[in-house]
Design brief:
Elements: E1 2-7, E2 17-21, E3 35-40, E4 43-53, E5 67-68, H1 77-90, H2 94-101, E6 118-124, H3 128-137, H4 141-153, E7 155-158, H5 163-170, E8 174-180, H6 199-207, E9 215-220, H7 226-239, E10 243-247, H8 255-265, E11 269-272, H9 278-289, E12 295-298, E13 310-315, H10 333-344, E14 348-352, H11 357-365, E15 369-373, E16 384-389, H12 390-395, H13 403-414, E17 418-422, E18 431-434, E19 451-453, E20 458-460, E21 467-469, E22 482-485, H14 489-499, E23 504-507, H15 517-526, E24 532-535, E25 548-553, H16 557-560, H17 567-579, E26 590-595, H18 601-607, H19 611-624, E27 632-640, H20 643-660, E28 666-678, E29 681-690, H21 696-708, E30 713-719
Parallel strand pairs: 9-14, 9-15, 10-12, 10-13, 11-12, 13-14, 16-26, 17-24, 17-25, 23-24, 25-26
Antiparallel strand pairs: 1-2, 1-4, 3-4, 3-5, 6-7, 6-8, 18-22, 19-20, 20-21, 27-29, 27-30, 28-29
Helix pairs in contact: 1-2, 1-10, 3-4, 6-7, 17-18, 18-19
The structure holds adenosine-5'-diphosphate and zinc ion (2 copies).
Amino acid sequence: MYVKVIIEYGAKAVDREFTYIVPTNLRDKIKVGHRVLVPFNNKNIEGFVLGITNHYSDNYELKEITNICDSEPVLNTEMLWLGNEIQKNILCSKIAIYQAMLPKALKASQNTNINIKMNRYIRLNVSFEDANKYIEECRYPEQIKVLEKLITDERVLITSLSSSINTLIKKGIIKFEYEEANRYVSHTTGKYHKVKLNKEQEFVVSKVNLNKDNTYLLYGVTGSGKTEVYMELIDKVIKCGKTAIMLVPEISLTPQIVDRFITRFGQDVAILHSGLSDVERYDEYRKIMNGKVKIVVGARSAIFAPLNNIGIIVIDEEHSSTYKQDNNPRYHARDVAILRGKYHKCPVLLGSATPSLESFARAKKGVYTLLTLKNRAGGGHLPEVSIVDMKKEVKKGNFILSEELSKKISEKLSKNEQVILLLNRRGYSSILTCRDCGNVLKCPNCDISLTYHKTSNTNRCHYCNYSIKNIHKCPVCGSDNMKDYGLGTEKLEEELNRKFNARIIRMDMDTTSKKGMHEKIICDFGNHKYDILLGTQMIAKGLDFPLVTLVGVINADTSLNIPDFRSAENTFGLLSQVSGRAGRSDLLGEVIIQTYNPEHYSIMLAKDHDYLSFYEEEMKIRKVLSYPPFYYLTLVNITSRDYELGFSEANKIGTYLRKYLGKDTIILGPSMANVFKMNNVYHYECIIKYKYDEKLNSVLTKLDEIYKVNNKVDISIDVNPIRV
Ligand code: ADP
Ligand code: ZN
Ligand code: ZN
């Protein structure tokens, strides 16, 4: 008997299956999907069994597997199939995909000490009568106490043994019982208030066929009650004895949605939170695997939750870039969801107020089924949005807050209402430069300027985390005429404190690095402990505060100026999302967008809440420039610590692609990546644009194999990249 085993070995994973002999003592235990220990290069390492066979014809000498790691396979039939399918789509090593599916405790070759914790209980081993008889004759009060407790409570958790327990065990009066402990305790909050779905919502629910592997796109304005629709459908699915996956962009940013699920579905829900420790995650994972929960709510990787009999998969805010993993394996949760939908013959429901262009185009073509919610469910109206031209404000000396925004903030504060301000840049300022010689303070490892952080009095690199104490003298010419330009959240906070007598809280990566801080800020703001919440885009998502009547966008241009074909789409999405935070109750909401590009279509159409026109406008541009959804993109990233070598290899790759790919395929580059130098590594890239190219997979696989054995130059292949 032989097994085919896949292992993870070395930095550039050897992605092939190795054959091993199964020793006789393991033959009736081993199954496909088992994690096993095998000898490889004079070491014992872990791998997964991908196949079992009785024939082997090659004539070199095989080794035996050393052991089986777990009693049951860690990869089930579906996961094994899924890994295969994903690999075909994203061209990465299969082992990387399997590893991504599993919690740390079950990954191969991790050498972790994450174990199942068993709780020990005692319970009676004799009838009540016999126990009572024993009590009557017993002279030891401690033993009597134990037995009386067991007569009332049936079983008792014990953490340490006593001599009386030992005696009772020995005499066979009581027995031990073991059960897996769960180290994660989710907090349940208030009571669930069921809302009655309105006509629009009911119609949407009735349109979803729960017995077919179809993909739906629910396009519903912010506050239209999409979440209620998700919950209703999931409820239906569970009542049929099936299970459900609910994906959200990021758990810590959406505590309110999570709360709604916990209060409605209680113990049936597992939350795969990024804040879980490895042991907690392992416990939650086993709970899911053992069928103890019916619903899994989580971010991207929860798409791999080992649920059986899935009845629906929901992806909220489907346009969110967090659904695409930006390192190996570069899978998109949406694609995995559709594969799992096929496997389980169940629907996939994508929801958004600003769907990605790709998804909306597919819905218009009929590849997905389009469902629409046009109105706000709670009765509130979409907010009134106005645009302020900052070019004019700057002339008046208003660099941070325009006259109009300042006035509105004061007005809302005086009415005891709340304000949310978005500024998509953390730190104090963005550039530190010398006024005498023009030197800009840059990161020594990266091709980017350092950001001044006042709170810590440091200058930091946002790419590699390099940090130095703030300097007052120019390191080039020695002048002390250093000046900082640009606006970050810290400076905004300072300005707000100077201008308003209000309780202000800032939420960005710097104030939320400690575990639980997101939730605390959101909860405190919700309880009106603060009047103004300012922050980066993490405040834009899914929050629902009835007292927020004003949303201000300090600088709508930060996302517009990113050189990326999706920058208009991202800007429109961000502005719509953050606007959606205002006016969610009967209080009317207002939004003020400050910008240096007031005529830009993404900003003007966001003001009108006009997704459909934005879609049409943006599609025209994408068509002219041959970008998605008209063309597919694949990015080949070439990296090296050696500038020259990277350059020459990148050129070779460009030539190779041009020579071997189909004639209708467009190849751009090689060129320097947007951030050319990062952590002392140089980045070049080739962009491949294609509608269909049957040679693509084989050409890229070949290329990947060539560079697997090159230790000076790396390539990575990103199919359908998020950023280009
Ligand atoms: P979305 O997910 O589309 O942003 P939500 O599901 O969060 O919308 O709903 C927005 C608000 O409207 C919530 O406060 C929710 O409780 C409320 N709501 C949703 N559906 C209804 C309904 N049918 N009747 C009354 N209120 C509703
Ligand atoms: Zn200088
Ligand atoms: Zn850096």
